Amino acid sequence: MAKEACSIGSTRLTIDLGAIRDNYRLIARQVAPAACAAVVKADAYGLGAARVVPALYDAGCRLFFVAQLGEALSLASVIGPDARLLILNGLDRGSEALCAAHGFVPVLNSVGQVNRWRAQAARNGAPLPAALQVDSGMSRLGLDADAVAALAADPAFARDISLRLIMTHLACADEPGNAANDAQRARFGVARALFPGVPASIANSGGAFLAADFHCDVARAGIALYGAPPSALAIGLRPVAALSARVIQIRTITAGTGVGYGLDYVASEPRRIATIGIGYADGWPRHLGGKGAAWHNGRRLPILGRVSMDSLTVDISDLADDAPAEGDFVELLGPSQSLDDVAGDAGTIAYEILTQLGQRHQRLYVDGAQQCA
Ligand SMILES: *Cc1c(COP(=O)(O)O)cnc(C)c1O
Questions:
Q1: Tens digit of pLDDT for each residue in 300-328?
Q2: pTM
Q3: DSSP codes, 318-358
Q4: Cα dist. 347→120, 260, 265, 292, 353 in Å?
Q5: What are phi and psi of 139, to 5 degrees?
Q6: Is the CB of 204 under 6 A from ligand 1?
Q7: Residues 198-241 pLDDT 10s
């Protein structure tokens, strides 16, 4: 009970940095001898990049991908001097001098970005580091085959740009049997051959668990670090995030009584119900209304009616003696309910559940059983 007394807020998000390090080592072994980079965009998928990045650095990671310059700026003082920050969304117009001054490595995604980075190199009077993205079939970011060939044929390109990585991104890495993966690898192979000696990268988490010819020199792992298996081939990852929320009220309702906004749920018989202090403002999807569940000691507590902003209501009728009491915490993510379970109920993917969790939870960083400062 003394432990409960120092707990603030009605939700608790526990993040296991030891599990993140173990997942990193597992993926690194999977792709060896290729190096494993960590994708820490979107605040390390919502789990807190300022804590996650040092843990990954401890595990040996030296390449970190973010999506935006602002994310790189906030991590510049967190990584060691021998580590590199690469920016996936590329080079924003007007940010060239700042990006160069910090030694960030932009992933150049278009001819316009390449030209603006070369112009910055000319102003600096020294080559600038860059990664080059090739669009091998996803039609999202990257240069097409002709533009890549033109750069490779331009001797001045290598004088302006110190090319650190040539990369592409798979559209279907989470579907190991999909023929699009091999087609993208083959198209990327052509582009890659134009830059001999430059390290190459295809694989995200899903790609890391595909055949070795997808691993190249560098894999870019995101979701697998955070404990969600990218495909059925990814075995042995440890869960990283656990989430629980407090029961804030318990009541018994009679047959015919409605629950929550719109009275979407109406009891057909007497029910014992509990209102839990988590809602869509905590990133708990509103789509879970009438579909999802919380858990208590391995027992499923179905969500009744709509999810509110700060609370939701679950059915505890079947628990009798084992029912949670007001003030008790019930499980939202943990041994009984994985990210993929929740994502499946909400009609989305683990990535979206994680990145939406937000800042209102009481966060607890642990290392295995050990609580961190
Ligand atoms: C987000 C991202 C990744 C990481 O993807 P996961 O599926 O989370 O491993 C890798 N590469 C690129 C280009 C990305 O945008």
A1: 999 999 999 999 999 999 998 889 999 99
A2: 0.96
A3: GGGGG---TT-EEEEESSS--HHHHHHHHTS-HHHHHHT--
A4: 45, 21, 20, 11, 10
A5: 60, 40
A6: yes
A7: 999 999 999 999 999 999 999 999 999 999 999 999 999 999 99
Q: Which amino acid is at 274?
A: A
Residue 5 has pLDDT above 70, yes or no: no
Length of the chain: 373
SS (H, E, C) 28-43: HHHHCCCEEEEECHHH
CB 207 within 8 A of CB 39: no
Pocket test for ligand 1, best of 36, 86, 88, 214 (most atoms within 8 A of CB): 88
Does residue 88 line the site of ligand 1, with CB under 6 A?
yes
d(CA 104, CA 162): 12
Burial of 124: CB neighbours in 10 Å, binned 0-12, 13-18, 19+: middle
Instruction: Report CA(17)–ligand 1 centroid distance (Å).
Output: 20
Ligand 1 contacts CB of residue 205 (under 6 A): yes
Q: Which residues contact 273 (CB under 8 A, 6 or more apart)?
A: 250, 251, 252, 253, 259, 304, 313, 314, 315, 316, 317
**Under DSSP, is residue 67 helix (H, G, I), strand (E, B) or coil?**
coil
d(CA 35, CA 13): 31
Integer Cα distance of 194 and 131 in angstroms: 14
Cis ω for the linkage preceding 33 (within 30 of 0): yes
Residue 81 CB coordination number (10 Å): 5
- Residue 166 belongs to what H/E stretch? strand 161-167
Q: Report residue 227 CA to chain centroid gap.
A: 9
Report d(CA 198, CA 292) in Å as an integer: 48
